[in-house]
Amino acid sequence: MPSSADQPMNTEGVTGDLLLSHLFCTIRPADRYKHPVTASENTANFKALAVKALKCRFLPGAAPACGMVGKGNMIKIDKKEIYRYLGYRRRTPDAEVIRLVDSCVEDLQREVTPRFIYRKYPVESIYTIPASDLMADENLSGDRKPGTVTRRQEEPPVPVLRIAGMEICSKSLARNLRGCENVYLMGATLGLGPDRLIARASVTHMSRAVTLQAAAAAMIESWCDEVNQRIIREAAEEGSYCRPRFSPGYGDFALEFQEDFSQILRLQKEIGVSLTESLLMMPSKSVTAVIGVTREKQGCVLHGCEVCEKAAECAFSRNGD
User: Fold this and answer.
1) Of the four, 1, 14, 208, 251, which is 20 to 30 A from 292 by CA?
2) What is the DSSP secondary-structure string of 130-166?
């Protein structure tokens, strides 16, 4: 059966503006930089290129799973995680701090609107290229995107993964996904409630704002764990096992791939998450991640510290607690 990219497309009546709006946001990252567009191109050529771009969308995966928890419903949270974010790694906080944490958690539980989406994709190919090939490509605005591929001279090889049309050069991610046949791409958020609480507290009560920040950070991790457990159960029904979740920004997995996650999972439409120009997610208590799926039985550590290369030097790492 032909892929969606090979299906004939009816472009009759589609305006040039609509095609332009789809050109950069739908073209596959691997192809995105192969067709630079300049202002000198005439409308006919540009429309033809836009139509081609529409036929090069990110590769389709399994049907997405989406969900949310109603406002005011409780998220399980380990308060030891909040104390760790506040710097109490091996010390017990005093009674005043404990009361402040309890109060902040109560406020957050009332205001959060947790949502999630995930979708399963094959790991299409795993191969190696010379390390010197990892030269950043330039996009249309002249900015550089780390982790994309440009051919250069020979050096020791570096792993490359191809997932959902993304071509990712990352030793850290390749190590995490070793032996995996499929992956889940996941997005999760607590909604705008925590950001509003933190913003209000920042004006009147800075210590409360800091505590809210720590509590919300622990809460989004707890929410991601709940979504992760759902994925683990789904994989188990198929006789598979999950690897630890791994997010853009971990190790050498470039943060710039947030843009691709956003488009592939349609984060803004499905769970209300958008990206700033600096690739930060809004609402701020939001997470994207890759979760590998393998037939090999192995433990799945849910938390990031256990798989993070910087855990040994991080003041907030749970390793060693």
Assistant:
1) 1
2) EGGG-PPEE-TTS-EETT-----S--SEEEEEEETTE
pLDDT, tens digit (0-9, with 9 covering 90-100), for 272-305: 999 999 999 999 999 999 999 999 887 656 555 5
Nearest-5° angle of CA 286, CA 165, CA 139? 80
SS3 content of the chain, % helix, strand, coil (to 5): 40, 20, 40
Task: Please tell me whether residues 158 and 30 are part of one structural domain.
Answer: no
If asked whether residues 43 and 73 sit together in one domain, one would say no
Output DSSP code: residue 302: -
| 261 burial type by CB count under 10 A (0-12 exposed, 13-18 middle, 19+ buried) | buried
The C-alpha atoms of residue 253 and residue 30 are separated, in whole angstroms, by 16
Please indicate, yes or no, whether residues 165 and 277 belong to a single structural domain of this protein.
yes
Which two tokens mark 139? 């996009």
In a domain, 200, yes or no: yes
User: Tokens 């994207």 correspond to what residue?
Assistant: 288
Statement to judge: residues 80 and 168 lie in one domain: yes
Asked whether residue 318 is assigned to any structural domain, the reply reads no
Region of 251 (left: φ > 0; alpha: ψ -120 to 50; beta: rest) is left
With beta carbons less than 8 A apart as the criterion, state whether 85 and 218 touch.
yes
Q: Residue 160 sits in which domain range?
A: 65-125+133-313
Dihedral sign (CA 321, 216, 300, 275): negative
8 A C-beta contact, residue 116 and residue 188: yes
pLDDT confidence of residue 65: 72
* Burial bucket for residue 223 (CB in 10 Å: 0-12, 13-18, 19+): buried
Structure tokens that stand for 287 in this block: 């997470």
Query: Is the domain of 92 the same as that of 175?
Result: yes
Q: What is the pLDDT of residues 171-198, one digit of tens each?
A: 889 889 988 999 999 999 999 999 999 9
